[in-house]
Structures are given as structure tokens and as C-alpha cells.
């Protein structure tokens, strides 16, 4: 494979983007950049420090205090691994709120673009193919129906010891979808040249197999 192959996986909340991105990164030995975790880190920091997330100036003035590193399945915020603390719903909503601010997006997008310059990478998020790496070699827009996404998040929560009803999760995802697609800066949307992949009735292995096939086809095109 050429030394620089970048994959952008976008899509709505709980569509399984991170799971698939990690699997693809492992299979091809690519660097995996979890951009959603970066926004969650910012949201988590603001919650932990009692910053009013409706106060854009207060959020902006605290950005310089945040250092995020992603490595070996660890998500380090100012040197402390918080991977197991950022998946709760409160942090999800905090991430959605802070990601609506242009300064936060610019701050993290710059970091993501720097990370994506080094060799072959897989990034997943909501604006990867449209904003972060619009010239990615392969763009996927991964979707699934609302009920399936809620069920996936419910199972993930149960495995992490988080108890939230399926009905409540469905409401939360619906709200997150609306917020993400209606924000002014870098809203969730499918890039024009992205391949839409509906994973509602697909297993993880089937999704990985499908994307692997798309990678091989793209490699042939680029030869």
C-alpha cells in the first residue's frame, strides 16, 4: 500500500464508527485517530472544572489548558488516561455542546490534521471527510437506523456498567443527531464523494469486510 492512505469515516452518533475504525486500523496497521474522543475530552474537562458550557468565551479561554494524546487505546487528558470516563451521556452532551463552537473545532481540527500527516490513518467523526481531511483517499459515511443505534449504545452501556433505558437512549441519540446536523460550524453531513454504508443489519465483520474491499479497490485505482 502507498505510504499515505487516509480513511475518513463519518456518520451520526452510535453508528459504530469507532468500532469499525479501530478494526480497520488494526487490520492494516494504520494509526487510528478517535476525533470524537477529543471533543469528549474537552467536554469532560469543562464539566470537571465547573465551566459553564453555554459561555463560549469561558470555554474558549480554557482550551489552552487542555492537552490531548491518543496512543495504544489510551486517551490521555493532561497526562491522565480518561478513556473509561468519557463515554457517559453527560459527557456526550458536553462534547456536542463544545463542538458547536468554532474556536473549539478549529483548535482540535488543527491537531487532527497534524496527526493525519504521518503515514496512513483512519479517522472517524462527523466532519472528517468534509473539513478535517477533505482530500482523504477513501471516505465512508456510516449510518444505521435509530432503533439499531440505540440498541448498540444500550449494549455498550450495559457492558460498561451504565444503566439507561433503551427508550431514553433513543431520545438522546435523536437529540444528538439534530444538534450535530443543525450546528452552524462543520455540521454533520455526508461528503459529496463519500460512500454511504448502512450497517443496520450488518455484523461488525461484514462492515470490516465491505470497507476492506473498498480500500483494495481504491488502492488499485491509485496505482
Characterize the structure shown:
It is a single chain. With 223 residues, the protein is an alpha/beta fold. It has a single domain (6-202), classed as P-loop containing nucleotide triphosphate hydrolases (Rossmann fold, 3-Layer(aba) Sandwich), CATH 3.40.50. The chain contains 9 helices and 8 strands. The protein has a 5-stranded parallel beta sheet with strand order 2-6-1-7-8. A hairpin with a 2-residue loop joins strand 4 (74-77) and strand 5 (80-81). Helix 4 (89-98) packs parallel to helix 8 (166-182). The model has no long low-confidence stretch (mean pLDDT 93).
Keywords:
5-stranded parallel β-sheet, Rossmann fold, about 220 residues, 3-stranded antiparallel β-sheet, 8 strands, about 50% helix
Order of helices and strands: EHEHHEEEHHEHEHHEH
Give the amount of beta strand, in percent.
15-25%
Fraction of residues in helices?
A: 40-55%
Spatial strand order of the main sheet: 2-6-1-7-8
Question: Major sheet, described briefly?
Answer: 5 strands, parallel
CATH fourth-tier homologous superfamily: P-loop containing nucleotide triphosphate hydrolases
